[in-house]
Amino acid sequence: xxxxxxxxxxxxxxxxxxxxxxxxxxxxxxxxxxxxxxxxxxxxxxxxxxxxxxxxxxxxxxxxxxxxxxxxxxxxxxxxxxxxxxxxxxxxxxxxxxxxxxxxxxxxxxxxxxxxxxxxxxxxxxxxxxxxxxxxxxxxxxxxxxxxxxxxxxxxxxxxxxxxxxxxxxxxxxxxxxxxxxxxxxxxxxxxxxxxxxxxxxxxxxxxxxxxxxxxxxxxxxxxxxxxxxxxxxxxxxxxxxxxxxxxxxxxxxxxxxxxxxxxxxxxxxxxxxxxxxxxxxxxxxxxxxxxxxxxxxxxxxxxxxxxxxxxxxxxxxxxxxxxxxxxxxxxxxxxxxxxxxxxxxxxxxxxxxxxxxxxxxxxxxxx
Length: 368
Ligand code: XIL
Prior knowledge:
Layout: H1 23-29, E1 33-38, H2 40-45, H3 47-56, E2 59-62, H4 68-71, H5 81-92, E3 96-103, H6 112-115, H7 121-135, E4 142-147, H8 164-168, H9 178-190, E5 195-200, H10 208-226, E6 233-236, E7 239-241, H11 244-248, H12 256-267, E8 271-280, H13 288-307, E9 312-317, H14 327-330, H15 352-362
Parallel strand pairs: 1-2, 1-9, 2-3, 3-4, 4-5, 5-6, 6-8, 7-8, 8-9
Bound molecules: (3S,4R)-3-hydroxy-2-oxopiperidin-4-yl beta-D-xylopyranoside.
The site of (3S,4R)-3-hydroxy-2-oxopiperidin-4-yl beta-D-xylopyranoside has 6 residues, from loops.
């Protein structure tokens, strides 16, 4: 599918002309799956957006449709319309689909707190994964089985977050909570073809908090492996912030710690997926050109480091156009200007970040 017009061939600020290789094609050439998160309702109601996703993404994931809350209006009901739509869309456009996610502390249904107890929690979790994972089994590239289980400030042993699932299913092993073990074992049984991922944020930079969190995440993965719990990949969310390096000092640069974490995952036999990349611009001044340049530099710098390791087999941005980004409602700029955080701007023209992402992909070696 081609986008009409090419006001600035190959340059930021215009639609990507047909002769500029797309992210999905450039990635595929190097054995790297490149794609993005989508919002199904906009795939339905915005044809230009749907065309852009079809053109650029070789792999897609919905921002919410497969989460527990959106899927489960009540303990006995499932709402599959949005997820089904995405699987159909992806089939039509020859895209892979990620599953996000079976277990998370957010977007859980309002009935969860009163309905789920220590007595029934294992059954609820297993049935959920059987029902949802089973429906799409064989069609999912990778499942984020557990999302964001580490929160050091909750002060639990192992650094685990005091989430709803942790409270009802802690288990007796402080190194791997029961809910994590149950979720991964059930996911493997239900969809043996899907890559099983542990996904988290705040593990990319080299400041003290990220270094500690990274260590807790890698310890969890090692402890899972030593107990024979099936896990195939580490998901590095990659929600980055441009300009924080200047604000907080050079330790906020993305580099050696990230490289070491990816190399460690590789030595453990794990793949690495960059699952949710975007670059928050709220620490940057209002000037559009300056913001775009700094955001693009963050894309380029980060991806050059991360893609240098062939363990990294997928790269997804969390959205494709600034028109639809969670940062516009979840992480607003103080001056209320819209965020310019994704490879395409709100008009769906290529931003400097698109070219930075393309350059980084082009510079990456071929994955086995
Ligand atoms: C976000 C979605 O983008 C929003 O639309 C939703 O309201 C909240 O969740 N880390 C994750 C994602 O793992 O699931 C989050 O997605 C963004 C942060």
